[in-house]
Design a protein that fits this description.
- By secondary structure, the protein is α+β, with helices and mostly antiparallel strands.
- It has three domains: about 160 residues, Aldehyde Oxidoreductase, domain 4; about 160 residues, Aldehyde oxidase/xanthine dehydrogenase, a/b hammerhead (Aldehyde Oxidoreductase, domain 3); about 325 residues, 2-Layer Sandwich (Aldehyde Oxidoreductase, domain 4), CATH 3.30.365.10.
- The protein contains 20 helices and 28 strands.
- The model has no long low-confidence stretch (mean pLDDT about 95).
Length: about 775
C-alpha cells in the first residue's frame, strides 16, 4: 500500500462537515431537564458602593425562582483569582457577584434565576439597588497622574507594578546620535467580538458529588483546576467540556465570574443552571485587549542605523485583570527584528475603572510591532531613504541566531532580509512606487499609499502539552489531545501528522479534545501553541506507536526488529517490500495474546511534550491603500502577506489563520476602538457603536512564504495563529501615513477613521 504524503498537503478540514450542515453543538444549544436560566444585574456605574438590594419586586415576576446576591455566595466560593501576589491580590478582587463596591460598568451584582431566559431577563429591572457613586478614572493617562482617583483602598496610586529592562549604553547612544526621534503612539482598546459569546452550563454529578460543566472556554483543564479551588471541590469531581466554541482569540482563556457563579448555583441548588452572554454583555464583561500608549525615542546615525531605543509603555489593566503581563510581552519583543545595541524599556501597568484588559490575538506582541514599524517609517523619512533600506540596515543577520535580545528573548532562527526581499518581489514593490509617483505627479484625487511591516513574534508557550495516539484493534486511530482547538483546525493538522507517521488513512483518524474526563491533562489552545507544542506531542506519541508497530511486525514477519522499516505506508522487511504488513494487520495482532513476552498488549502511546524554549515566527506584509482626498475614506486596495512559520503541516489551515489574523489586524488599524467617557461609561457598548470590518473591507489577499524551521520542536514548526494580526496593523497604518506624506502628516493614532484622515489633510497636522 502506498500512501500519499499528508504533511504539507491541502486537505479538507475534518472540523467542517458538522458545522456547515448545522450540526454544531454550542453551550447555548444545550438544555437539560429541570434547567434554570440566569440573567445578571450589572452595574450602570464605573465606580460605586453597593447599598441595599431590594429583590422583592423581581421575585413577584412569573417564572422567577430566586434572586441571588454576592453575600449569598460567601463561604460557598472564593473571590475571583486576579493577577498579582496572592496575598495582595485578595485585596483587589471581587466575588462572582460583587459585594460592597463595583469598579467598572457591567460588573455583576445580582443573579435572577428563572424557568426561562426571557423571564430572567424581564426581571432584571425589578432588582432595585441603592448606589453611592464614587469618582472614576477611565483614561489611561489620567490614571497615572498624581491627582487621579485611586481604585483600590490598599494602594496610594493606580500603578500595579513597573517592569523594566535595560541593556547597553543607552545614554551614550543618545549622546552621540545624529538625530533623536520621538513619538507617542497609542494602541487602542479593542473587544474580541467572537462570533459566539461566552456561555456556561453546569449540572450536579451524583456519582462524584461534583459537577459537569460545559463552557465556551479555550482552557478546559485550566478552568477545572480553578473551579475546584474556588468551589472547594476535589478536582476529580469536576468535569469540564468545551463543545463547539465559536471563536476565542484569547478572551476565553481565563476563568470568568459567570463560570464560578453558575457552578456555585448548580452545586447549591442541585439542579442544572445555564447562562448565555448577550452581545451587550460581551462588550461590558468579556476582557478587552491592547489599551496601551508608548513614548518611543530612537537614537540614529546618518545612515538610519538605530544606535539606541527608549520605549516607555503605559499599559491598561482595567479593574480586575486575570493576568498583568501583557505590557511585559510588549517588552520582550521591544526590539523586533532589529539588532539594536542599547535598549531601555519600561512598562507601567495601571488599574482603571474599566473592564479588565487581558489576552487578545497577539497579546502584547502587536503593540511592540506597531511601535517599531511606525518608528522605521519615521526614521526613513528623517534620513530620506526608502523604509525597506532602513529595515535592511537594522535587521538581525542569519549568522547571529540564536539571538538574545536586549530585553531577554532568545530568538531561535530567522532570515528577515530574505523574507523582506520575497515580499517586495511578490508585491511588485517597485511597480507600486512607480504608480504612486505617477499619481502624485498628476495630483490625483485618489491618493495611493504603500505600507511595509516586518514583524517577529513569540509563541509556542509551555510548560507542556499532551497527546494520546491509540490504534484500535480494527486499525482505525483515535487521537486525544490536551489542546482545545476552537476554529484553528487542530483536528485536521494532527490527523495529517499521525497519518504520515504511522501509516493510517487520513479518513480513518478521529481527533478528540476538550473534555477533561477523557483527555490527558492539557494546557489549552492560545498563544499560537496548538501545533508547535500540542502537535509535537502528537508527533512524539506517533513515533512511539510506530516503533512498537515495527516490533510487532518483526514478530509477525519472523524477522529481527532492526530489519523491519516503515516505508511506503507499511511495515516491511528492508529491501523486501513484498514482505510487508499494514497498520490494521499489526493492530489486530496487538490486542491478542500472540505476542512475545517483551512486547506489551495494545498499540498506543502517551506523550507530554515540554518545549525547551519559545519559538519566533516572522514575516513581512505590504499594504496598498487608496484615500479619497475629498472625504478621507480609505480603501484597502491590495494586500500581500509573506509569513515564515517554519514547515507548513497543513497549508490550507495556515492560509485560513492568516486570513483571520489579517481581518483583525486591519480592523484595529482602520475601524475598531472601545471607548469609555471620562466617567467610565462605555460608549461603544454594541455593534451599533463598535465598528468591525466586513467582507467588503478587504481585497483578495496574496499570500506567500519563506520557511525557516525552529530547532525547538520535532516538527520544526512555529505558530501562525496570531502572526498576521501582528504584521497587518502597522502595515496598514504605514500605508495610510505614506499616502498622506505630501501633506506633511507624520503620525495619526488608530483607528484611522475618515474623519481623522480628512482633518489631518486639511490641517496638515503632524
Amino acid at each position: 500500500m502506498v500512501l500519499r504524503s499528508m504533511i504539507g498537503a491541502h486537505v479538507k478540514r475534518k472540523e467542517d462537515p458538522h458545522l456547515i450542515t448545522g450540526k454544531g453543538i454550542y453551550v447555548g444549544d444545550l438544555t437539560l431537564p429541570g434547567m434554570r436560566y440566569v440573567a445578571l444585574v450589572r452595574s450602570p456605574f464605573a465606580h460605586a458602593n453597593i447599598g441595599s438590594i431590594d429583590t422583592s419586586a423581581a421575585l413577584q415576576r412569573p417564572g422567577v425562582v430566586a434572586v441571588i446576591t454576592g453575600k449569598d455566595l460567601i463561604g460557598q466560593c472564593e473571590p475571583m483569582p486576579v493577577a498579582g501576589d496572592d496575598d495582595v491580590a485578595k485585596l483587589r478582587t471581587h466575588y462572582p457577584l460583587s459585594i460592597d463596591r463595583v469598579r467598572h460598568v457591567g460588573e455583576a451584582v445580582a443573579a435572577v434565576i428563572a424557568t426561562s431566559p426571557e423571564a430572567a431577563e424581564d426581571a432584571l429591572d425589578d432588582v432595585l439597588i441603592d448606589w453611592e457613586t464614587l469618582p472614576a478614572v477611565a483614561d489611561l493617562a489620567q490614571a497615572v497622574s498624581n491627582d487621579a482617583p485611586v481604585i483600590f483602598d490598599d494602594m496610594t496610586s493606580n500603578i500595579e507594578h513597573i517592569w523594566e529592562r535595560m541593556k547597553g549604553d543607552v545614554d551614550g547612544a543618545f549622546a552621540r546620535a545624529w538625530r533623536v526621534l520621538k513619538q507617542r503612539m497609542v494602541s487602542q482598546k479593542l473587544s474580541g467580538v467572537s462570533m459566539e459569546g461566552r456561555a456556561v452550563l453546569a449540572t450536579p454529578d451524583p456519582a462524584s458529588g461534583g459537577l459537569t460543566v460545559w463552557s465556551s472556554t479555550q482552557i478546559p483543564h485550566g478552568l477545572r483546576t480553578e473551579l475546584a479551588k474556588s468551589l472547594h471541590l476535589p478536582e476529580n469531581s469536576i468535569r469540564v467540556i468545551a463543545p463547539d466554541v465559536g471563536g476565542g482569540f484569547g478572551v476565553k482563556g481565563a476563568m470568568y465570574p459567570e463560570e464560578v457563579l453558575i457552578c456555585a448555583l448548580a452545586h447549591r441548588f442541585q439542579a442544572p443552571f445555564r447562562w448565555v452572554e448577550t452581545r451587550l454583555e460581551h462588550m461590558q464583561a468579556t476582557t478587552h485587549g491592547r489599551s496601551q500608549f508608548a513614548d518611543v525615542e530612537a537614537a540614529i546615525d546618518s545612515a538610519g542605523k538605530v544606535l539606541g531605543l527608549r520605549m516607555y509603555v503605559v499599559g491598561d489593566l482595567g479593574a480586575y485583570p486575570p493576568i498583568a503581563i501583557i505590557p511585559e510581552l510588549t517588552g520582550l519583543m521591544a526590539s523586533g527584528t532589529y539588532d539594536i545595541p542599547a535598549v531601555d524599556f519600561k512598562a507601567t501597568c495601571v488599574y482603571t475603572n474599566t473592564l479588565a484588559v487581558a489576552a487578545y490575538r497577539g497579546a502584547g506582541r502587536p503593540e511592540a510591532a506597531y511601535y517599531l514599524e511606525r518608528l522605521m517609517e519615521l526614521i526613513a523619512a528623517e534620513v530620506g531613504i526608502d523604509s525597506t533600506e532602513v529595515r535592511r540596515r537594522n535587521f538581525i543577520r542569519p549568522d547571529q541566531f540564536p539571538y538574545k535580545t536586549p530585553t531577554g528573548s532568545l530568538y531561535d532562527s530567522g532570515e528577515y532580509e530574505k523574507n523582506l526581499t520575497k515580499a517586495l518581489e511578490v508585491s511588485n514593490y517597485a511597480g507600486l512606487r512607480a504608480e504612486q509617483a505617477r499619481r502624485r505627479a498628476e495630483n490625483s484625487n485618489m491618493l495611493i499609499g504603500i505600507g511595509i511591516a516586518s514583524y517577529v513574534e513569540i509563541c509556542g508557550f509551555g510548560p507542556y502539552e499532551s497527546a494520546v495516539v491509540r490504534v484500535e484493534p480494527s486499525g482505525t486511530v483515535t487521537v486525544y489531545t490536551g489542546t482545545s482547538p476552537h476554529g484553528q483546525g487542530g483536528q485536521t493538522t494532527m490527523a495529517q501528522i499521525v497519518a504520515d507517521h504511522i501509516g493510517v488513512d487520513f479518513d480513518k483518524i478521529v481527533v478528540k479534545h476538550s473534555d477533561t474526563a477523557t483527555m490527558p491533562m492539557g494546557v489549552g489552545t492560545f498563544g499560537s501553541r496548538g501545533l508547535a507544542v500540542g502537535g509535537s506531542a502528537v508527533m512524539n506519541a506517533s513515533v512511539e506507536v510506530r516503533d512498537k508497530a515495527r516490533q510487532i511486525a518483526a514478530h509477525m514477519l519472523e524477522a529481527a526488529a532492526e530489519d523491519v522499516e516503515f516505508a511506503n505506508g507499511q511495515y516491511q522487511v528492508k529491501g523486501a517490500p513484498d514482505r510487508g504488513l499494514s497498520l490494521a494487520q499489526i493492530a489486530k495482532r496487538a490486542y491478542t495474546d500472540d505476542l512475545p513476552n517483551n512486547i506489551s498488549t495494545g498499540l498506543e502511546a502517551t506523550n507530554f511534550f515540554r518545549p525547551p524554549e519559545t519559538v519566533f515566527p516572522f514575516g513581512t506584509h505590504v499594504a496598498v491603500v487608496e484615500i479619497d482626498r475629498e472625504t478621507g475614506i480609505t480603501q484597502l486596495r491590495r494586500y500581500f502577506s509573506v509569513d515564515d512559520c517554519g514547515p507548513r503541516i497543513s497549508p490550507m489551515i495556515v492560509e485560513g489563520q492568516i486570513h483571520g489574523g489579517l481581518a483583525q489586524g486591519i480592523g484595529q488599524a482602520l475601524l475598531e476602538e472601545v471607548i469609555y467617557d471620562s466617567e467610565g461609561q462605555l460608549l461603544t457598548g454594541s455593534l451599533m457603536d463598535y465598528a468591525i470590518p466586513r467582507a467588503d473591507t478587504f481585497p483578495q489577499f496574496v499570500l506567500s512564504k519563506t520557511e525557516t524551521p525552529t530547532p525547538h520542536n520535532p516538527l520544526g514548526a512555529k505558530g501562525i495563529g496570531e502572526a498576521a494580526t501582528i504584521g497587518s496593523t502597522p502595515a496598514v497604518v504605514n500605508a495610510v501615513m505614506d499616502a498622506l506624506q505630501p501633506f506633511g502628516v507624520k503620525h495619526i493614532d488608530m483607528p484611522l477613521t475618515p474623519q481623522k484622515i480628512w482633518r489631518a489633510m486639511t490641517n496638515g497636522k503632524a
